[in-house]
Amino acid sequence: MKSGSLFFLGLAAAFGLSWSGIVWSNAQLARLAPYYDDGEGTSFPARLPGSAAAGQLVFRDLGCASCHTQQVRRPGFGSDTDRGWGDRQSVARDYIYQPYVQLGWSRTGPDLTNLAGRKPSAPDAATLMRLLYGGQGAMPAYPFLFENRKIAGQVSDAALALTGRLEPAPGRQIVPTDRARELVEYLLSLNTTYDYPEAHPVPASAGEGKK
Amino acid sequence: MSSASSQVCAEAAAVHAECGQEPGRCPLLFMLGSGILWLVLAGVLSLIASIQLHSPDFLAEHAFSSHGRVQALAETAFVYGWIGNAGLALALWILCRLAGEPLRASNWVGTGAFFWNMGIAIGLLGIATGGATAVPMLELPPYVQPLLFAAYAAIALAGVAAWTGRRREVMFAAHWYAIAAFFLFPWLFSVAQVMLLWFPVRGVLQAVVGGWYAQGLWTLWIAPLALAGAYYVVPRVTGRVLPAYDSAPLGFWCLLIVGGWTGGRHLIGGPAPAWIPTVAIGAAVVLLFHYIVVVLNLRTGFSGAGISLRFISFGLAAYALGGLLDAVTAVRGVAVVTQFTHFDEAQGQLALQGAATMMLFGALYFALPRIVGRPWASHGLVRGHFALSVLGILLLAACLGTAGLVQGWALNDPKTAFSDIAGLTRDWLHGATAARALLLFADMLIAVNFFTTLVFAPETGEKEGAS
Fold first, then answer.
1. Among A51, B258, B262, B377, which one is most buried in terms of CB atoms within 10 A?
2. Domains plus CATH for chain A?
3. Is there a contact between B336 and A77 if contact means CB atoms under 8 Å apart?
4. In chain B, where the domains are located
5. Which CATH superfamily is domain B26-457 in?
6. Of B272, B174, B61, residue with least CA distance to A135
7. Mean pLDDT by 10-residue block, N- to C-terminus, for chain B (467 residues)?
8. Nearest CB to B60: which of A97, A99, A140?
9. Residues 284-313 (B) with a CB less than 8 A from some CB of A
10. Hey, are the CB atoms on B62 and A15 less than 8 Å from each other?
11. Which string of b and e fits B56-86 if b means at least 16 CB within 10 Å?
């Protein structure tokens, strides 16, 4: 290896080669269109409502993805569907409208892909608010997303219904900030209940796989 | 070149050869010193993040110290602060040594290093106040990234000048790795910035580009910076030609061509096109060839004496083990257990702390006396640093690895309630916290030793240099 320019060309070629992989995936993924369902008269996935999109920014800047994934693997590969995290595997089409895709890399916390569509029961806004305020198990509390306010006159409609160790002092109430509200809006927008054709690449044979 | 300037060059080289004084040492020392300070800060932050894994309420009351942000801060301070500064400074020094010339464009290096560190400081403040991008290894807020890019270019200019201005045409293995790192980082960094931050690509492609960047940062920047040091120091200290050196170019090109493709293994089972993880699995296996070549080349270090070789040999062993684990955990049957668990983190730390950092330490222990012209202030601190680092890394990798396996098996068994899994791993995570504390203590030892060497050492070296 003596020639400097040849060496440099080699570097460029090696880099360009792995770069070509990105270009190729782009060619495959960039043209993915939403899926129009004649029966329902609308197309899927839906765009995030504005408040949920703002909530995704909260999710992103707090680094929630360092403990929560948003990708369900196919039935039989891990226990994702058995744990009720989703009815089907996640597919690329699920994410086309997400401004910041948060696939995540760790499952210290549960997967959130289909949080709002979980069966038999998905969490409601009040449950998520309490979870964010107080934490639970390995999940930390996020008290800075809430205001501990004096009750002036009536208790706020948005005040959390808290009991036990989380109950505020008499005369005080815990009210979510805008950021908490947006984050919960976002979490409640997470669902993948619509079945795309490509979500079941292998037809489930009778009696196995799908519930 | 005029005769006057060539005479100046010759004199500078003579001074350099006689007493090891480096004309451009100030910027290098600034980079090494700030790198060590970022390393200590990263150690503190990693310790906090580690405590939060088993005691989630620890420092949870403020947004800036919540787990997600502390994790991002620790990673950024470590990768860009420590490896960026120390890795680049050592690579520059090695390129100058190989060229037989003093550091050229040292003003550029100094200016670049100043803005690089300022960019990191602003970036960390940005992450703490909510500017993180949530892209692994690229957490720095978008607004400081162009500054870092420009600062990097100013530093790298000197590296390129040292390479093109070398006296002999021949290139050594240390050259290849250092130059590859210098050239490839700006490409990688700018491409990731454009595709993820300025004009974000759509949907899952973001995750593909993010994975490619994180892998590229390791394969095309961090690992080459560390290997440049190892390939330079091992033959100098042992005084022997590297064995199997004929195969070294193959090992180098294998890393460059194949390494960039292995990032997709993190997408196994995910919503990306299936060929991406499949190619990555193949690439991770082919990459074993690179690890074999590097171990064959540098194996003389294992039997050599001296603290530099002990650091580098430990780093080399961690590097090879990390490569093997990458290949094994890329296999789908293994990935189904280890994916998304603490095992991933164990592999990451084995690579960053065990392989890259230990090799950089080895090069630093070799380089600093030659840069400042006097020995390290304390041998006791050097030995303590080595012992604590080895202990810390082994404990960290073992605890996180075991926690990951326990977690992975429990996750795959739907009968184990999710809320019980944290309890199963808690003891191992306590072990990981102890390991983080050991590593922080080790990093403080080298910080004390480094700054004592700069400030309090006898002046003899200085006088010889001036005469």
1. B262
2. 37-198 (1.10.760.10)
3. yes
4. 26-457
5. Cytochrome c oxidase-like, subunit I domain (1.20.210.10)
6. B61
7. 38 42 79 97 97 94 95 97 96 91 88 96 96 93 95 92 80 92 94 93 92 94 97 93 93 94 91 93 96 95 90 97 96 94 96 97 95 91 96 97 96 93 95 97 97 75 36
8. A140
9. none
10. no
11. bebbbeebebbbbbbbbbbbbbbbbbbbbbb
